[in-house]
Amino acid sequence: MRIAIFISLSLVALVTACQVEKSVKQEIPKVTLTVSVAASVQDAMTDIKKLLIQENPNLEINYNFGSSGSLQQQIEQGAPADVFISAAPKQMNALQKKGLILTETRRDLLQNKIVLITSKTKGNKVIFQELINDKFKKIALGDPASVPAGQYAKEVLTSFKIYEKLQPKLVFGKDVRQVLTYVETRNVDAGIVYQTDAKISDQIKVTAVAPEDTHSPIVYPVSVLKNTQYSKQAKIFVQFLFSNQAETVFKNYGFTIVDTNN
After folding, report:
1. Contact present, 43 and 253 (Cβ < 8 Å)
2. Using CA atoms, how far apart are residues 10 and 4, in angstroms rounded to an integer?
3. Beta sheet of 204-209, edge-to-edge order
4. Is 210 helix (H, G, I), strand (E, B) or coil?
5. How many angstroms from the chain centroid is the CA of residue 208?
6. pTM of the predicted model, to two decimals?
7. Which phi and psi angles does 100 have, rounded to 5°?
8. How many whole angstroms separate alpha carbon 186 and alpha carbon 139?
9. Can you list the positions of beta strands (E) in 187-243?
10. Element (DSSP H or E) covering residue 51
């Protein structure tokens, strides 16, 4: 009799626990975050999204990829976004100055390098200073006014004292991925992109890496935006970017993690 009573009570407890668990799951709504991300992180962030959702099934991510300058303007104009990842501090600084980010959530996430690329069909490797040669008719880089990679490229060329000389040859892309496409399709003779973008293409080759003292530090900051309705979930997303899983993905694409301790 005692055994029967014990079994009965155990079954009741099990059924009750299952009902409570089911009820809790039903009470947790599925939240969709809109994340504005610099185009140069597109492939890594796509992979990270899959890993994140495995651990957080009630969290969905919609990415908005573009140049950091364009994304900054969209956010300033009220476009919906919960998290912003910029390819340079400049755009994040502008949003912070206007009170549009949760300052306490801002962290430096990634580092990158600037490289000179040509099509694989081109001959010998060249260095930045050789771009003034007549064999280079068109050279692509991101628009320095809105694309961080373009701003870094301008700094590199200015450091070598050739930016003004190259003006007639320069073709500006709307983002770093467009620059990569120009080189892949041989619409230009050379391009300047991030090392990580060069790594994903098998149609180009890296001919030179810009010395670090020729440009500002290439840092990607991330922050939760002030107008988000889902600050808790947005913070979970940002925290995941510093996890070991995310770090492995970023490194596979050639990035370096900046902040792993905060």
Report:
1. yes
2. 10
3. 170-173, 139-142, 190-194, 114-119, 204-209
4. coil
5. 23
6. 0.80
7. -100, 0
8. 11
9. 190-194, 204-209, 219-224
10. helix 42-55
Tell me the pLDDT of the chain (262 aa) as tens digits.
555 444 554 544 444 445 434 433 344 578 999 999 999 999 999 999 999 999 999 999 999 999 999 999 999 999 999 999 999 999 999 999 999 999 999 999 999 999 999 998 876 788 999 999 999 999 999 999 999 999 999 999 999 999 999 999 999 999 999 999 999 999 999 999 999 999 989 999 999 999 999 999 999 999 999 999 999 999 999 999 999 999 999 999 999 888 555 4
Total Cβ atoms within 10 A of residue 98:
12
Query: CB neighbours (10 Å) of residue 173?
Result: 24
Contact (CB, 8 A) for 223 and 108:
no
Based on C-alpha coordinates, what's the Rg of the chain? Answer: 24
The number of CA neighbours under 13 Å toward the Cβ of 196 is 26
For each of the domains in the chain, give its residue range(s) and CATH number, in order of start.
Answer: 26-110+220-257 (3.40.190.10), 114-214 (3.40.190.10)
- Residue 119 CA to residue 166 CA, distance in Å, equals 19
Residue 62: alpha-carbon gap to chain centroid? 14
How many other CB atoms are there within 10 angstroms of residue 26's CB atom?
Answer: 8
Distance (Å, whole) CA 139 – CA 156: 14
